[in-house]
Amino acid sequence: MSKMVVEPRIRGFISLTSHPEGCAANVRRQVDVAKVGGRGEGLGNVLVVGSSQGYGLSTLLTAVFGYGANLLGVCFEKEPTETKTGTAGWYNLVEAHRLAEVEGRQLSTINGDAFSDAVKRTVVRELKERFGPLELLVYSLAAPRRVDAEGVVWNSTLKPLGERYTGKAFDLRHHKVIDAALEPASDEEVASTVKVMGGEDWRDWIELLREEGLLAAGFRTVAYSYIGPEVSAAIYRRGTIGRAKEHLEATGIELNRELSTDGGGAWVSINKGVVTQASSAIPAVPLYISAVFKVMKEREIHEGTIEQIVRLFHDHLAPGKTPRTDDEHRIRLDDLEMLPEVQAAVAERWDSIDDDTLYELTDYAGFRRDFEQLFGFEVDGVDYSAATEVNQALELVVIED
Questions:
Q1: Residue 66 and residue 198: Cα distance in Å, rounded?
Q2: Order of strands across the sheet with 70-75?
Q3: The predicted structure's pLDDT at residue 183
Q4: Is this model's pTM higher than 0.85 or not?
Q5: Rounded to an integer, what distance in angstroms lies between the CA atom of residue 193 and that of residue 53?
Q6: Which of 226, 250, 227, 233 is closest to 160 using CA atoms?
Q7: Distance CA 225, CA 272 (A)
Q8: pLDDT at 277
């Protein structure tokens, strides 16, 4: 046994600890939402690449507990030891696996680098031995680094293109509104970011599974992305990340053309801005999310990751549903966030946000609570003064050598 009192050790946009009971409670809440919003119809076999946190975790929970899918997930999480907590994603999956076993649902997890050939080979083996061909693949991978099949290392960067960026941002370490600046990216940095966050790996997965005969008739696939507001466009949508997202969307159109001949298809889902580790690291975005949360909550149209994904399945991906897209073949789950009146309300208060008005004009308190809940803290009903078992086991699929 390795029980201990777990306290948050948050450093800016990362936490060095996570709380097992808090993570489990978060998963149970999402499962409740998935069951209410789901239709109970079988999705068949589903693969989620990036299944342990954020939108990927919500996808796993919605597919399994809302639509009865047989699900294989791929993630990259750190397991706990006798003296250290594991990552939040590890504890999320411990609870998801427990609930799946209780309810007699099929859920398996491969913990390793989704870019690697070893993990891809292991997925192929598992599908052939235990699942069968896939009806759906959801690509929800958010990684800062990629080692390709030739052993070349590619790193993503968050930088503007052409000109130096200056603008309002937020210092999460000191909870202060600040001015931020970023130098423009080089051509090499742009290319490297596209390699990591573009559509190449998504296509690699589809081509491998097709070659192995593991795509069912009518197979569909979705990758997740984000556009965001004008206040972050210079460093996001019009920056290095934006180039990668454009590549992802172009890949989706190409894949859709190929898959639609067999009754299937491929789409990119543009999701709403939410609190994640990745989004918290982007200048301007934590402040923007705090402001847009305030506006959307005032209008009672705010959604978290699980509400977004339940809507995605209900409206677009459930059996018998045909995804509705914009003119660029994208599913727009950010439709409520990007309503003109919502963006106008954010823009109206943007220049007035400073240290004195932060809690009045934004929902920074809600942002901070959501951020801590990513790691299992500040969750209602959890006794954080009590010792909890941190060295929790998770049965994983063994990765091929």
A1: 30
A2: 107-111, 70-75, 45-49, 134-139, 215-225, 265-270, 330-332
A3: 92
A4: yes
A5: 22
A6: 233
A7: 9
A8: 81
- Residue 289, CA distances (Å) to 197, 278, 294, 362 in order: 22, 13, 8, 9
AA letter at 229? P
Both ends of the chain: CA-CA distance in Å? Answer: 31
pLDDT value, residue 289: 94
| Structural domains present in the chain | 3-151+197-283+301-334+371-389 (3.40.50.720)
Q: Which of 206, 244, 257, 186 is nearest to 49 (CA)?
A: 206
Distance of alpha carbon 187 from alpha carbon 378, whole angstroms: 42
With tokens 């047989």, the residue in question is 70
Closest CA to 253 of 227, 221, 226: 221
Q: How many CA atoms lie within 13 A of 128 on its CB side?
A: 11
Distances (CA, A) of 301 to 11, 33, 219, 295: 31, 16, 32, 9
pLDDT of residue 78: 96
For residue 178, give the 3-state DSSP assignment. strand
pLDDT at 114: 97
Question: What beta strand segments (E) does 285-345 contain?
Answer: 330-332
Distances (CA, A) of 64 to 112, 156, 186, 207, 321: 21, 32, 43, 25, 18
Task: Write down the residue that tokens 């009903």 correspond to.
Answer: 381
d(CA 158, CA 138): 24
Q: Encode 340-363 in three state secondary structure.
A: HHHHHHHHHHHCCCCCCCHHHHCC
Residues of the chain with pLDDT under 70: 1
- Residues 116 and 106: their CA atoms lie apart, in Å, by 24
Find where tokens 């504890």 sit: 91
Catalytic residue numbers, as ranges: 236
pLDDT of res. 1: 56
Counting every residue written for the chain, the total comes to 401
Rounded Cα distance between 134 and 348, Å, is 47
Looking at this protein, which amino acid is placed at residue 139?
A: Y
- Cα dihedral 322, 325, 328, 333, rounded to 10, equals -130
Question: Residues near 165 by Cβ (< 8 Å), separated by ≥ 6?
Answer: 159, 180, 181, 182, 184, 234, 235, 239, 283
The single residue listed with the structure tokens 């709403």 is: 272
